[in-house]
Design brief:
Blueprint (H helix, E strand, L loop, with lengths): L15 H17 L5 H55 L12 H13 L6 E4 L6 H10 L8 E5 L5 H9 E2 L11 E2 L1 H4 L4 E5 L6 H13 L1 E3 L6 E3 L3 E6 L3 H6 L5 H7 L2 E4 L10 H16 L5 E2 L1 H9 L5 H15 L3 E2 L24 H7 L8 H23 L4 H7 L4 H10 L8 H6 L7 H10 L3
Helix pairs in contact: 1-2, 2-3, 10-12, 11-13, 16-18
The structure holds adenosine-5'-triphosphate and magnesium ion.
Adenosine-5'-triphosphate binds next to α4 and α12.
GO molecular function, one term: DNA binding
GO biological process, one term: regulation of DNA-templated transcription
InterPro entries: AAA+_ATPase, AAA_lid_NorR, Homeodomain-like_sf, P-loop_NTPase, Sigma_54_int, Sigma_54_int_dom_ATP-bd_1, Sigma_54_int_dom_ATP-bd_2, Sigma_54_int_dom_CS
């Protein structure tokens, strides 16, 4: 019975090999014992109990591993819920936004900052690449604040010749300089009680920066050619596509002005960092273009859609908007790759050789390095795909019944509809599988939901 004299405690490291060894010990004990004494029986029972505990632990571990494997799906659903909840909360608080937004966390963060800043008079600095919506955001801040019914005056600091800058911003007295034939109000006075939007603030020359700083500190201006101070109550929102901090390190932008302007700092993410918003923008701008051009909203072939979903958009939302207007104008009902501007098309585009959705990568591969995705873009695109696949699987499961899917994944129905729209998913396309499985659809609410979700 030597073998039985091994330590009976189960080792903390559990393995199937260890379990088999212990079972073999039990078998051998039973085989060689002609007669079992009480002590031996006790020993075997203890070993059997240890074995049972280990099997229990293994099964717990197994279940844990399975649950962990399912975790990403659950996390994805949780994430969708919380992102959707943030967007929903903004809408429920009647946040005014003259455009469209989905549930991209970076954009939501910018919008939430704007929402909080809007009712205050604190200066706001908006930065972001060209075409990311800085001017739109400035208007949003104005529209959501207490000055909404007062003037919003926009000044492009990069477009005013140096010698006219002071007069443009602060006005002048008659005869202050050659050509000043009468008194004239400047932009600050025009924006009194309202908001002044100082666009391209990074282009403001240093002398102009000094004068602006004085207005920010004293809340008064002097017209060119006058000593008389005029009090101005103007909320300042500035925008730039340059890195003001870096400019100030290089001595090209006054540091004190930078800190004055950026009490609240909002950064708008480039479109490549909010790709998940692209389908929403397709839909928004194709409707907008249809309205402007008085025609039906343009539809896209799958290969065009796939290409545009992964395109790099160096010109950000403005570029996407222009593309949608172009497609709406040049294509009939259905737009294809050939309707894109030549410099945007995949270089070696050969229509016959290009397939549907799975060829998106090939299309981009042909587009040259300018359109190559970065690693983070590729990850984001993969996450979008996972989201879409999750919704498709869900819709298949419930036979295209949106209300049922919302129930199952515990998601707000309107948010789910928005996601379906974002991915171009039509609930009716999933109904066939339901009918073939004999699933029933009976809720009038579902019909309403789905017609809403099926807006292209
Ligand atoms: N979320 C959005 N929804 C709808 N339209 C948008 C959105 N964001 C931006 N746009 C549109 O995109 C275009 C570019 O936006 P905007 O002019 O505000 O960008 P910008 O950052 O000021 O660009 P630039 O630096 O070149 O001046 C505008 O037509 C604007 O209405
Ligand atoms: Mg702008």
């Amino acid at each position: 019975m030597k073998i039985l004299d091994q330590p009976e405690d189960s080792s903390p490291a559990i393995s199937y090999a260890g379990l088999i060894e212990k079972i073999e010990i039990l078998r051998s004990t039973l085989r060689w014992s002609s007669r079992l004494e009480r002590a031996e029986i006790e020993k075997l029972l203890r070993q059997a109990s240890a074995l049972r505990d280990e099997v229990m632990q293994l099964s717990h571990k197994e279940r844990f591993v399975q649950a962990a494997a399912a975790e990403p799906e659950r996390l994805a659903a949780d994430l969708l819920r919380s992102r959707g909840a943030r967007r929903q909360a903004l809408l429920e608080r009647s946040f005014i936004f003259e455009g469209t937004f989905g549930d991209n966390p970076k954009l939501l963060e910018a919008l939430e900052i704007a929402e909080k800043a809007a009712p205050t008079d604190l200066p706001v600095l908006i930065d972001g690449e060209s075409g990311t919506g800085k001017e739109l955001m400035a208007k949003v801040i104005h529209a959501n604040g207490g000055r909404a019914d007062k003037p919003f005056i926009s000044v492009n600091c990069g477009a005013i010749p140096d010698n006219l800058l002071e007069s443009e911003l602060f006005g002048h007295r008659k005869g202050a300089f050659t050509g000043a034939s009468g008194d004239r109000k400047g932009k600050f006075e025009s924006a009194h009680t309202g908001t002044i939007f100082l666009d391209e603030i990074g282009e403001l020359p240093l002398p102009g920066q000094v004068k602006l700083l004085r207005v920010l500190e004293a809340h008064e201006i002097q017209r060119v050619g006058s000593d008389e101070p005029i009090a101005v109550d103007t909320r300042i929102v500035a925008a730039t596509n340059r890195n003001l901090r870096k400019l100030s390190e290089q001595g090209m932008f006054r540091e004190d002005l930078f800190y004055r302007l950026s009490v609240i700092h909002v950064t708008l993410p480039p479109l490549r960092e909010r790709r998940d918003e692209i389908p929403l923008l397709f839909s928004y701008f194709s409707d907008e273009a249809a309205g402007a051009l008085k025609r039906r909203p343009v539809r896209m072939t799958p290969r065009l859609r796939d290409f545009l979903l992964t395109y790099a958009y160096p010109g950000n939302i403005r570029e996407l908007r222009n593309v949608m207007y172009r497609l709406s104008c040049l294509a009939g009902d259905m737009a294809d790759i050939d309707h894109l501007p030549v410099d945007m098309r995949p270089m070696a585009h050969a229509p016959a050789a290009v397939g549907a959705s799975s060829d998106a990568a090939t299309l981009n591969g042909e587009a040259g390095t300018a359109n190559l995705l970065s690693l983070s873009d590729a990850k984001r695109a993969a996450s979008d795909e996972a989201e879409k696949a999750f919704l498709q699987r869900g819709l298949r499961e419930v036979g295209g019944t949106v209300a049922e899917l919302a129930r199952r994944v515990d998601m707000n129905r309107s948010h789910l509809q928005m996601l379906l729209k974002k991915h171009g998913l039509h609930s009716k396309d999933f109904r066939h599988s339901a009918q073939s499985r004999g699933a029933t659809r009976n809720s009038a609410t579902d019909d309403a939901d789905e017609s809403e979700a099926d807006l292209r």
